[in-house]
Model the fold of this input.
Amino acid sequence: MSIGIVGGGVIGLSIAFELLERGAQDITVYDPDPSRSAGLVAAGMLAPTAEAVFGEEALQALMLESVRRWPGFAGRVRARTGLPVGHRTEGTLLVALTVDDQAEIDRLIGYYRRAGADIEPLTGRQLREREPLLSPRVRGGAFAPGDHQADPRLLLRALRSLPLRFESTAIDDLSTVRDDVIIVANGVGAAGLTGLPIRPVKGQVLRLRGAEPLVRHVIRGVAGGRHVYLVPRADGELVVGATEEERGADTSVTAGGVLDLLRPAADLLPGATELVLAETLAGLRPGTPDNAPVLGPLPGTRALVAAGHYRHGVLLAPVTAAAIAGLALDGSTDIDIGAFAAGRFT
Ligand code: GLY
Done:
């Protein structure tokens, strides 16, 4: 049986990996330009707690299921490819600068607790005990031990080394794909191919570099009402993200976008200003009307869809890959994806 996957980013290649793991052999990945993968811009937070949003309970359950799968997924990718994916489990610190910022974090802590998430409130001093370079002005926050990180660039490098057939053909009509099974996993590009309401949501990101990491934890901060996340890599890189902008397919980096990220980053972690500004970039998250992905059969076609992962592509890769590989090879999955069917939009 031949399987064609449209999209060679984190989602498409994670599905390909899971198919290989389950014995599939004849897999073609169609991607005219893998350099446009949203995963190359993503910071790689695996954040089912800190990225939880009021009213998105089904999505949060899927996020929790996927973060639970991440250690096994990372280990299996490493075992198959010999390459690391930067999976780290130090956890995430939520950090507030002003009284109002603290009130916002306190509201979130209440919500996380009601949702059953593991969250530990911390004073400013307790935060600085864990991360001494946080600003002395930081008032307080919390520790989310279950929110981890992976390095999407390492993940993509590992997955691209898999024994797959890579075709640079641009697919703009599903009927041109001759494989027995078709899987649509090309993020924002899935809109044109499927008619699903998937739209680009721009995110600008900075990569700062220093000789050593300034922090060990992922930091999610709010400073004067401005939100930022800081994701440290072992080699001294600090990923600072991300703006969220409804600007169609625009991927320009703007001075205002850089300012919106650097200002809260410097307020919370002053040493960040000493780092080299190594890269500025913008990517397009594939957003959907309810912020949740589309997983499963595309009505009226023989294709399966795995797209619209919005802010959570890296986090949701393992659960998406397992569900779609099950559907492709066995026609079913024991993962509860009922809330994510394409039919909710058609
Ligand atoms: N998951 C973080 C972001 O999309 O910016």
In short: The first strand starts at residue 2 and ends at 6.
